[in-house]
From TrEMBL:
A single BP term in Gene Ontology: DNA replication
Protein name: SF4 helicase domain-containing protein
Molecular function terms, GO-annotated: ATP binding; DNA helicase activity
Pfam entry (one): DnaB_C
InterPro entries from the UniProt entry: DNA_helicase_DnaB-like_C, P-loop_NTPase
Record Gene3D superfamilies: P-loop containing nucleotide triphosphate hydrolases (3.40.50.300)
Domain SF4 helicase: from-to ranges: 34-185
Annotated source species: marine sediment metagenome
Length: 191
């Protein structure tokens, strides 16, 4: 069955106006990129994360893509405190609570094994009260970030609908950053 849908086309004058507005906004500091901790990434990507751009990070299994995304979403808030944006993060491989554990691990310079007291075979926790208080303090800080998680995989249509609803309800007047981790776990269309 062939589709009769026609894709939209536009005359060159429209994108010409858009690029002039973009260049002018950039030079005036109206439009800026969100900085990341990686100087080379920022240099290669127009100063950081740009609005209306799709970034794809790919690599073999176990190469650190999820850790990169996890660091990126927190770093954006740490390094761009004056910017008005929100993150919607689809985590199909790891529950959001475990993502928070990774963030705490990085901030406290402790392994997740140390955080979860899994190094010992006895029933006593190996994490000190002092370390636990630091964990609580850092958790209080990061839970203030406008980051929202979707833990359950969905179809492409469900993901699109979730993004649209989230944009209408929560990110209406904000810059929305969507992170989609582990697209292989996206479900097929339901018929």
């Amino acid at each position: 069955m062939t589709s009769s849908k026609v894709l939209q086309y536009r005359h060159i004058k429209d994108p010409s106006r858009e690029i002039l507005r973009y260049i002018d906004d950039r030079r005036k500091g109206i439009s800026r990129s969100l900085k990341t901790r990686w100087k080379k990434f920022n240099r290669q990507c127009m100063g950081g994360i740009e609005p209306n751009v799709i970034y794809t990070f790919a690599g073999i299994s176990g190469s650190g893509k999820s850790a990169f995304a996890n660091s990126l979403e927190t770093d954006l808030f740490d390094l761009n405190k004056k910017d008005n944006f929100v993150v919607l993060s689809f985590n199909f491989e790891m529950l959001s609570s475990k993502q928070i554990g990774r963030k705490l691990s990085y901030r406290l310079k402790k392994t997740t094994r140390e955080l979860y007291s899994s190094e010992s075979n006895d029933t006593r926790a190996t994490l000190s009260d002092e370390d636990y208080e630091k964990i609580v303090q850092h958790t209080e800080e990061i839970k203030q970030y406008p980051i929202y998680y979707v833990d359950s995989p969905g179809t492409v249509d469900e993901i699109r609908n979730t993004i649209n609803k989230f944009h209408e309800e929560i990110a209406k007047d904000k810059w929305l950053i969507v992170i989609l981790d582990h697209t292989l776990l996206t479900r097929g269309r339901e018929t």
